[in-house]
Specification:
The chain has helices at residues 2-29, 36-43, 47-51, 57-80, 87-102, 111-118, 125-150, 160-178, 183-201. By secondary structure, the protein is an all-alpha fold. It starts with a helix and ends in a 10-residue tail after the last helix.
Length: 211
């Protein structure tokens, strides 16, 4: 049993490492452009080894979407949720997302923004998974906005879905403009615009000291 468990653990580590490469590669070549040959070469594994995990390209794409969701939760969401409830947590989430995009951890800035553009008019299970991820992101933003309203840190008249759309739109624009224009400048614009928008609405001074 220890030998079997060791093999399973090694297999899972190899699968996770390969999906790390797949997510990064998809932001360069597109999720639809993600091929077994390209992934095997970049990950330094055999093509037959990849087929042991995913028998079709669609299975690989869906696994990449799920892995990207897990990464986003670990890298962006969980650190932000450690901030105090209310507008500070909402801002922490927006800043965490923009910081991850600008970090260069993923060559294309954001797996989801790139893939969602790519699959907008391609019906099927991959598009459904990407649509669900976007809906989950909006739901999280709306929940944090609602919490800030309930705490009296945002006005009662704030419309959570609309403000969530605005904040997401700034990040989305930053992804594609940063690949065509001066990236550092674009991410600064996106951060400043989001901060100014929340400051204009805030009923508390928590964001005033931020630059």
């Amino acid at each position: 049993m220890p030998t079997v468990d060791g093999r399973l653990a090694r297999g899972e580590r190899a699968r996770t490492a390969t999906l790390d490469v797949a997510v990064a590669l998809a932001t360069e070549s597109g999720l639809d452009g993600l091929s077994f040959s390209q992934l095997a070469e970049r990950a330094g594994v055999s093509k037959s080894g990849l087929f042991a995990h995913w028998s079709t390209k669609e299975e690989l794409q869906l696994a990449a979407v799920a892995h990207a969701s897990q990464r986003f939760t670990e890298v962006v969401v969980r650190p932000a949720l450690r901030a105090p409830r209310g507008i500070r947590r909402l801002w922490a989430l927006q800043e965490s997302r923009l910081a991850d995009m600008a970090s260069g951890a993923l060559p294309g800035g954001c797996f989801f923004t790139n893939a969602q553009f790519e699959f907008t008019v391609r019906p099927g299970s991959v598009r459904d998974a990407l649509s669900a991820a976007l809906a989950d992101w909006h739901t999280l933003l709306e929940r944090l906005i609602t919490e800030a309203v309930e705490l009296g840190e945002l006005p009662a008249g704030v419309h959570p879905p609309r403000l969530a759309f605005e904040l997401n739109a700034l990040g989305t624009a930053a992804v594609y403009e940063s690949r065509l224009l001066r990236a550092e400048e674009i991410y600064t614009y996106a951060r400043t615009a989001a901060l100014d928008r929340l400051r204009a609405l805030a009923l508390v001074p928590y964001l005033e000291a931020l630059t």
